[in-house]
Amino acid sequence: MAILPSINQTATKRELTEKQKSFLTHLVDTKGDAKKAAELAGYTSHYHHVVKTLKSEILELTQEILANSAPKAAFKVVEIMESNKPVVQAANKLTAAQTLLDRVGVSKVDKIDVNHNMNSGGIFLMPDKAPVIIEAEDVSYEEVNN
After folding, report:
1. Tell me, what DSSP letter sits at residue 14?
2. Is residue 29 within 8 Å of 48, Cβ to Cβ?
3. Which of 48, 61, 68, 142 has CA atoms 20 to 30 A from the CA of 35?
């Protein structure tokens, strides 16, 4: 399948065997069915071991698949937005497209307005108050009874 030309030229740090490359190619061809991909690649042992061994390559492959599908998701968002007719399962399709775009890094940007208009009032900072020292003479106080 021509969806991922980098399978044979993987940018990983380790060299993959032909069987491992075949597994990754078949993983794409089978649309993610690891058990079937392992069988087609010639693995006779349990496919979980293959998945565990190729975990980083599978994650890299998954990112490539999502990146390749991102333009289609973007066009689906625009198609739903511009449609004058009802779109079957529009909410589900829109959610799926938005999720895919979020995962590849194309997401909405949240902005906070931090502008302040100086003509609308302001804050006036006063200097610290100097301490006030009160001197008093010795005075006796009488108790006042009401």
Report:
1. S
2. no
3. 68
Euclidean distance between CA atoms 140 and 116, whole angstroms: 58
Instruction: Give the pair of three-digit tokens for residue 9.
Output: 């030229």
Question: How many angstroms separate the CA atoms of 89 and 66, rounded?
Answer: 21
Tell me the per-residue pLDDT of 47-79, one tens digit each, with 9 for 90 and over.
Answer: 888 999 999 999 999 899 889 999 999 998 898
Sign, Cα dihedral of 19, 21, 23, 25: negative
Burial 10-32 (b: 16+ CB within 10 A, else e): beeeeebeeebbbbbbbbbebee
Determine contact, residues 73/97, Cβ cutoff 8 Å: yes
> How far apart are the C-alpha atoms of 69 and 78, rounded to whole Å?
15
User: Where does residue 32 fall: left (phi above 0), alpha (psi -120 to 50 degrees), or beta otherwise?
Assistant: left
**Is 0.70 surpassed by the pTM of this model?**
no
